[in-house]
Amino acid sequence: MDIKDIIKPENKVYGKTPLLTDAVMHYCPGCTHGVVHKIIAEVIEEMGIQDKTIGISPVGCAVLAYNYLDIDWEQAAHGRAPALATATKRLNPDKYVFTYQGDGDLASIGAGEVMHACNRGENIVIIFINNAIYGMTGGQMAPTTLLGQVTATTPYGRNAELNGYPLKITELLAQLDGTCYVTRQSAQTPAAVRKTKKAIRKAFENSMMNKGTSFVEVVGTCNSGWKLSPVKANKWMEENMFPFYPLGDMKDR
Cα(239)–Cα(224) distance, rounded to whole angstroms? Predict the structure, then answer.
């Protein structure tokens, strides 16, 4: 059989969404960020909202997201993405506005920003990647680092008496009247990717219904920061992260 007989539109199984640029991603092999970028791009393409979407990227591993998704982007100072998204959405109510933040950004220096944006019920989407560590700056302890977890600044493991307890920021935000949809998902298997994609699409749809803030946490891996291979990092996440950060919807109003 000639190769031309195989490469036909009807035989196509998968095609990369045109919303993803041809730039080579800088993320480490096995990193969850690249998978979630792909999910967001596919959702925007399928909804037909490329020219109506504005992403806000702050400081951290996701700071270069604008290199990979062909939409309008704004860059915020560390932790301030929800504040910038608030202004952007209020000035452009017909746009789909979302932030893309890591745990070091959102749950630490940006905790006040995200708390008040959610409490006000801003009609934005917040996508939160939780890998329990500061990935870009050297693998230091983050607010979401688990008890006993070894990091660059907790070489003997996180100690509650010294370092405090891991912050379940998503559970806190679910209690606020301004949030309409709060969920925690993952992206380590095809089934998990499908659930995360469904959640992100729902969040985008909510943002145009004036229901309040939609918050999607994605529990992810940082195999470089964790000093594990991609395969072992996924296993460690399933065995250690999921029991403390259980997956599923926490609020759907």
Answer: 18
Token pair, residue 171, equals 């559970």
The structure's pTM equals 0.94
The per-residue pLDDT for 15 is: 80
Q: Is residue 20 part of a domain?
A: no
Spatial distance between the Cα atoms of 44 and 204, rounded to a whole number of angstroms: 9
For the chain, how many structural domains are there in total?
1
Q: What is the pLDDT of residues 158-212, one digit of tens each?
A: 999 999 999 999 999 999 999 999 999 999 999 999 999 999 999 999 999 999 9
98: domain CATH number is 3.40.50.970
What are the DSSP E strand ranges found in 1-152? 53-57, 72-75, 96-102, 125-130
Residues 6+ apart with CB under 8 A from 165: 147
Which structural domain range is residue 166 located in? 30-241
